[in-house]
């Protein structure tokens, strides 16, 4: 790891802690978040030359506080110029609690911040962007690059998100107990979205986008440290690790997608597999079952098989059955149908797929055509399979998926 | 997801195009969904370049001669196709011609 990477890691680790301190001292999410970004920027320019200060955290808190106070003062000066009455007094930096009084609670701060950034008043896209900036410590330019949009597009997305939070009256405190579960669900969903955005891009040329998997795993580890007994947090972390373990094998040298069954298993990351499997096993024995644990358990069964032919499809089918009961959704049904086909034969899988034809959420989705094609191929119905692979290829908006599906159709040409 | 919004107009209706987009621009701009915007010059002054067996030919005018043409384009990045359609409905060109919502391909993909 290079010195600049180490510095970047340190700054990202400290970002939510510093923001937490500022929010508790001064309140005002939008202003505090801007001040922390400026302090991070100052550190990134000054530290490489002047060296990392003895207490980087206090340095950042001091600089960010100063920026915030400056901001408030200039805002007040502006208001005075505009002859607006009743300007508030600027919070005096001397009144701030001594630095010693605010250590500890960093993990809680990170969690509280995540709850704030994943506030239900925001759209998922803005939750994702704001989380990466305020909790992940990424700059707007970095978030924009990761999502392949110009900075001029990302900046208003983030500032509107902050305005919405303000308008919703949300403050820097943990949600009330009765809404904690739903709000944690939203946080986990955002972390899952960030991971997926990076993982699906990791075979392509979008390196910056691929780094989102690392960022999602880092943030999920932070949540897991704050809530070690939550089975779903552990389940999500496990799911990410077990999915990321396959990253090196998921695409060929030319970037073409390699399906799970054909991946070179020697290229899977055994350390990640071991950690992910242990996490989900512990979680399932100690906490109530949830969708992330189930998906992690399924991922574990896939990666534990030495060869594709050794996969315990019977267990996978049972787990998908449970997943369908607790979180019924068409994507789960698709995967369930594959597991049914692998255990009860392709016709049984195809019959299960028929239940999705009338479901507007998926009836025209390329994945339904792709899975149907795959099962028809298994059943020896090659002409129908070819047709459905082609339909799936036309419906996807993903270049590597398009190429994969077209190739599968091509292999069935005679 | 990224979408290209093609603003189709009939040649006879093209006067006034480029106006009345404030609502769309405010909605897509403030939400952080607008990526780019282009207003096209009249199709009659475009050129079509063809290469056949290494020989380049250039002809004047649009690729397809029709009374309807693309007068402008927006690229948006939004949550879903539904949201892209919702944004397209804010563009007044839809009243004279129509707005085509065209998904763009993405280099990311999931193995199957």
Assembly state of the chains shown: heterodimer
The termini of chain B sit apart by: 20 Å
Shape descriptor of chain B reads flat
What is the average of the pLDDT values of chain B?
A: 90
Number of helices in the DSSP assignment of chain B: 3
Structural class of the helices, strands and pairings of chain B?
Answer: alpha+beta
Strand order of the largest sheet of chain B: 2-5-1-6
Portion of residues within helices of chain B = 10-25%
Work out the number of β strands of chain A.
0
Tell me the Rg of chain A in angstroms. 25 Å
* Global structural class of chain A: mainly alpha
**Helical content band of chain A:** 55-70%
Report the C-alpha radius of gyration of chain B, rounded. Answer: 17 Å
Tally of alpha and pi helices of chain A: 18
Spatial gap, N to C terminus of chain A: 52 Å
Q: Which H/E pattern describes the elements of chain A?
A: HHHHHHHHHHHHHHHHHH
Query: Which chain pair shows the most residues in contact?
Result: A-B, 41 and 22 residues
**Broad shape of chain A:** elongated
- Mean of residue pLDDT of chain A? 90
Largest beta-sheet characterization of chain B:
4 strands, antiparallel
Could you give the topology of this structure?
The complex is a heterodimer of chains A (414) and B (112).
Chain A: H1 3-26, H2 29-50, H3 56-81, H4 106-117, H5 124-135, H6 140-146, H7 151-167, H8 177-201, H9 207-226, H10 231-244, H11 270-286, H12 291-304, H13 313-326, H14 330-344, H15 346-354, H16 366-378, H17 382-395, H18 399-411
Helix pairs in contact in A: 1-2, 1-3, 1-4, 2-3, 4-5, 4-9, 5-7, 5-8, 6-7, 8-9, 8-10, 9-10, 10-11, 10-12, 11-12, 12-13, 13-14, 14-15, 14-16, 15-16, 16-17, 17-18
Chain B: E1 2-10, H1 22-30, E2 34-39, E3 47-52, E4 55-60, E5 68-77, H2 81-88, H3 93-96, E6 98-103
Antiparallel strand pairs in B: 1-5, 1-6, 2-5, 3-4
């Amino acid at each position: 790891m290079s010195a600049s990477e180490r510095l970047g890691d340190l700054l990202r680790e400290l970002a939510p802690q510093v923001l937490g301190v500022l929010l508790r001292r001064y309140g005002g999410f939008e202003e505090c978040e801007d001040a922390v970004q400026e302090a991070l920027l100052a550190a990134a320019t000054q530290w490489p030359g002047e060296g990392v200060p003895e207490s980087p955290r206090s340095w950042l808190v001091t600089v960010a506080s100063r920026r915030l106070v400056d901001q408030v003062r200039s805002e007040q000066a502006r208001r005075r110029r505009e002859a607006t009455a009743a300007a508030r007094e600027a919070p005096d930096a001397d009144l701030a609690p001594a630095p010693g009084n605010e250590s500890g609670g960093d993990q809680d701060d990170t969690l509280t911040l995540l709850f704030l950034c994943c506030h239900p008043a925001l759209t998922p896209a803005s939750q994702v962007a704001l989380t990466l900036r305020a909790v992940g410590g990424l700059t707007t330019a970095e978030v924009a690059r990761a999502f392949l949009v110009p900075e001029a597009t990302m900046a208003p997305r983030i500032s509107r998100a902050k305005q919405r939070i303000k308008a919703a009256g949300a403050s820097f405190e943990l949600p009330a107990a009765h809404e904690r579960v739903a709000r944690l669900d939203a946080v986990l969903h955002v972390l899952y979205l960030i991971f997926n955005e990076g993982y699906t891009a990791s075979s392509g040329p979008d390196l910056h986008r691929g780094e989102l998997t690392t960022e999602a795993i880092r943030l999920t580890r932070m949540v897991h440290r704050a809530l070690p007994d939550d089975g779903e947090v552990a389940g999500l972390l496990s799911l990410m690790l077990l999915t990321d373990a396959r990253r090196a094998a998921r695409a060929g040298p030319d970037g073409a997608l390699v399906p799970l069954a054909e991946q070179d298993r020697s290229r899977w990351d055994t350390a990640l597999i071991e950690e992910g499997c242990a996490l989900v096993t512990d979680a399932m024995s100690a906490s109530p079952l949830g969708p992330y644990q189930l998906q992690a358990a399924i991922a574990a069964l896939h990666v534990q098989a030495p060869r594709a032919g050794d996969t315990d499809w019977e267990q996978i089918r049972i787990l998908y059955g449970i997943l369908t009961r607790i979180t019924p959704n068409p994507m789960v049904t698709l995967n369930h149908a594959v597991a049914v086909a692998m255990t009860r034969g392709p016709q049984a899988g195809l019959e299960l797929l028929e239940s999705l034809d009338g479901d507007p959420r998926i009836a025209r989705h390329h994945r339904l055509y792709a899975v149907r094609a795959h099962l028809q191929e298994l059943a020896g119905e090659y002409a129908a399979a070819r047709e459905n692979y082609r339909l799936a290829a036309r419906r996807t908006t993903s270049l590597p998926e398009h190429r994969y599906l077209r190739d599968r159709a091509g292999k069935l040409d005679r | 997801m990224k979408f290209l919004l093609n603003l189709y107009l009939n040649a006879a209706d093209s006067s006034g195009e480029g106006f009345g987009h404030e609502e769309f621009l405010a909605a897509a701009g403030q939400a952080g969904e607008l990526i780019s915007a282009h207003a096209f010059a009249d199709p009659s002054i475009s050129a079509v370049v063809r290469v056949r067996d290494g020989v380049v030919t250039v002809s004047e005018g649009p690729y397809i001669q029709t009374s309807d043409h693309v007068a402008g384009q927006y690229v948006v990045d939004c949550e879903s196709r539904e949201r892209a359609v919702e944004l397209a409905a804010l563009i007044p060109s839809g009243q004279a011609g129509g707005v085509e919502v065209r998904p763009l391909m993405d280099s990311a993909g999931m193995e199957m």
